[in-house]
Specification:
The chain has 330 residues and is of the alpha/beta class. The chain has a single domain, classed as UDP-N-acetylmuramoyl-L-alanine:D-glutamate ligase (3-Layer(aba) Sandwich), CATH 3.40.1190. It has 10 helices and 15 strands.
């Protein structure tokens, strides 16, 4: 019987630089601190699950380069007890990386990305006869050239992968990247019908539906969520800085506030969305109700804010939940 979580998509090394201000074009900012760590939806999600002590199996699917960064990713996964049998090193490209600029005073971040080996990932790399997990998380759509490419039968390569996972009895979830483009409709929509859970922030929801959402508290967010649910059979989970929403195909909407983390505890928000997904999916795969999954998600996301990189701040399960008890929720 399948159990645990597999995650495929972008495997990235994040090079995080904490800066004093985000400069205007041609201006200068000072780098105050720098580090490197894991990045990308599957890497962040699986490492987050490992750090909270998730009891199910963890499996990696994707591509890295035959370079020191690729070896670093494989070694890190093995140390975290993540199965790397479907995480392949290829000679065609180097391991993907992202320069992450995080403003010290706000935690806001800006990304400069090099696709690298991830651009070569395609549906053939997803061998579900070798996947032992009961759930597949796929991300980030819009940042995977081979999976974003058109597919005559399913619409996109990502939709083909998700349909294949479901035909093998897996539940599925997807995440997308906050790309400033008009590609959301043709790239994201085909995947929705094959996803049991869709994770988005308010920007991604706005771009996918075409409904302008000017800020995280805009009432049009609810309108956009209900509109997108017309193409989703499971749940749409929208996370904003202060609030998270789960829209269900049965018409129900569930909300939960984010943890009120003190400003002096926030070192960076990079990876917070993936940490939220880790908490949510840990509850989902263990059979918890949606409201509890949302609570798990915001607590794991809150712990990720304790460090400037994606996963170093993530705490063991009980300590994540204690943050919500200690600081309360919005």
């Amino acid at each position: 019987m399948r159990s645990g979580i597999a995650a495929g998509g972008n495997w990235i090394i994040d090079r995080v630089k904490v800066i004093d201000t985000y400069p205007a074009q041609d201006a200068l900012a000072n780098i105050l601190e720098e580090s490197s760590g894991n990045g990308g939806a599957p890497y962040n999600l699986l490492k987050g699950l490992s750090r909270i002590g998730y009891a199910g199996g963890l499996q990696a699917i994707g591509l890295v380069g035959m370079d020191p960064d690729g070896k670093r990713v494989l070694d890190d996964c093995q140390q975290c007890k993540i199965d790397t049998s479907l995480l392949t090193q290829i000679p065609e490209a180097h391991t993907s990386y992202t320069d992450v600029m995080t403003v010290e005073s706000t935690g806001r971040r800006t990304f400069f990305h090099q696709r690298g080996a991830n651009a070569f990932l395609n549906p053939e790399h997803f061998d579900f006869d070798r996947v032992q997990s009961g759930h597949l998380h796929l991300g980030y759509l819009l940042l995977l050239d081979g999976l974003d490419a058109p597919d005559e039968e399913f619409g996109t390569g990502a939709a083909r992968v998700l349909a294949g996972a479901q035909s093998h009895g897996l539940t599925t979830s997807i995440d997308v990247v906050s790309e400033d483009s008009d590609r959301f409709l043709k790239t994201v929509l085909p995947a929705l019908k094959h996803a049991d859970i869709v994770f988005m922030n308010e920007f991604e929801l706005s771009r996918t539906t075409g409904i302008a959402i000017t800020n995280p508290n805009d009432e049009r967010l609810l309108q956009a969520g209900e509109l997108l649910m017309e193409g989703i059979k499971g749940h749409l989970v929208v996370h904003t800085p202060d609030q998270v929403y789960a829209f269900s195909s049965d018409g129900k909407r569930t909300e939960h506030g984010s943890v009120r983390m003190p400003d002096d505890q926030i070192k960076g928000a990079v990876g917070a969305g993936d940490a939220f997904a880790a908490g949510y999916l840990s509850g989902f795969t263990d059979g918890f109700e949606v409201e509890e999954c949302l609570r798990f998600g915001v607590c794991v996301a809150a712990s990720s804010l304790l460090a400037p990189d994606s996963s170093s701040g993530v705490l063991p399960w009980g300590d994540c939940l204690s943050l919500g008890e200690q600081y309360g929720y919005y």
